[in-house]
Amino acid sequence: MHPDPSRSSQPAQTSARTGAERYADDGAPREDNRPPDLRTAVHDLRNVVAPLRNAVQLLRLRGKTDSDLAPIADIIERQVNEMVRLLNALSGVDSSAEPAATPRTEATRSGVTAGRRVLIVDDNVAWLTSLSSVLREAGHDVKTAEDGEQAIPLAVSWSPEFVLLDAHLPGINGFEVAKRLREMYAPQAMTLVLMSGSTLDEATVRGAERAGFDHCIDKIHNFTTLEGLLRRQ
Length: 233
Description:
- It is a single chain.
- The protein is α/β, with parallel strands linked by helices.
- 39% of the residues are buried.
- It is globular.
- The chain has helices at 13-19, 36-62, 69-91, 125-137, 148-158, 174-184, 202-211, 223-231, and strands at residues 22-23, 29-30, 117-121, 141-145, 162-165, 191-196, 215-218.
- It contains eight helices and seven strands, in the order H-E-E-H-H-E-H-E-H-E-H-E-H-E-H.
- Helices cover 48% and strands 12% of the residues.
């Protein structure tokens, strides 16, 4: 299943509004003390930057056979890293904890020991398309869904090894999707990963664990974080 190109690549307004919220231990939204307009703006901008981060990684992968792409990827990545630093400052996050730039030697197809079956679930079409392109280029078998209603039956029929879930899905949210999948599949059979468009804090991580998620990753992560997880046996 591929993203519907007729849909906007920008996050929907309803998704942006709920995306500004954080999740408490039980998966319910909890209060964020930042001004509402700032919360919404930071969340929306993070979801704009995330596909750019994926695009940089795709350039690095394809730069293996085109040396002209490597310096272009370096330039774009420096700009993306600066945007991430500014967003982290607005979010009150220590930018020194941000992963370093992706080494070129790690952005190669030969670095993948075996392709994995990966299901990506997100209603942000730009992020869904960019990440699925990166993972396919890296040698993984990828399918996508844009909401929970699509994701659950696809997961049951295809049995992916990894499910990368956004929290703020239309209809059934990502936490509920995770709960339902965890009731059917043990972590050894299906690894559930929360891909968060907001900065990860302790309450969000605890809520994800209670919902059945095995890992939490920021959407504007360094790609080596996700690829390292997918390589695990």
